[in-house]
Write a structure and sequence with these properties.
This protein is mainly β. 0% of the residues lie in helices and 50% in strands.
Length: 135
């Protein structure tokens, strides 16, 4: 994945987080980090600056389809073909919670308060997931 400066067409940073194609990406609320979801079964939360190491979100056993940030930027959700949505600490890459779902999640979104996650499932339904408090 590469970040480009639109005005000049100059590459700002090459983000070598994945070995497979990227399926989705989402900016953090402060615009300083970019989350990505990949066919290589991983997600990533990378800084757009000069950081040398960014955490890889690598607990999924299936392709990662989607990712979403909480409004405070303290949590990152990833949705995977392994029929899970997982919550992460984006700074460390530590998995903090796992939701097992009845079907593959196609997308995921936090509510503004960060207390619920909505997931659209491949079977044509949607599900609301309560984010455990104190994570």
């Amino acid at each position: 994945m590469r970040l480009w400066e639109p005005e000049s067409g100059r590459e700002i940073r090459s983000l070598n987080a994945h070995t497979g194609s990227v399926r989705a990406c989402a900016w953090s609320p402060d615009g300083q980090r970019l989350a990505s979801a990949s066919f290589d079964n991983t997600g990533a939360a990378v800084g757009t600056g000069k950081r040398t190491r960014d955490p890889l979100l690598n607990a999924h056993t299936g392709s990662v389809r989607a990712c979403a940030w909480s409004s405070d930027g303290q949590r990152l959700a990833s949705a995977s073909d392994d029929n899970t949505v997982r919550l992460w600490e984006p700074e460390t890459g530590r998995e903090i919670h796992r939701f097992d779902l009845p079907s593959t999640p196609q997308s995921v979104a936090f509510n503004p308060a960060g207390t619920l996650l909505a997931a659209a499932l491949r079977n044509g339904t949607s599900i609301l997931l309560k984010v455990p408090q104190g994570l």
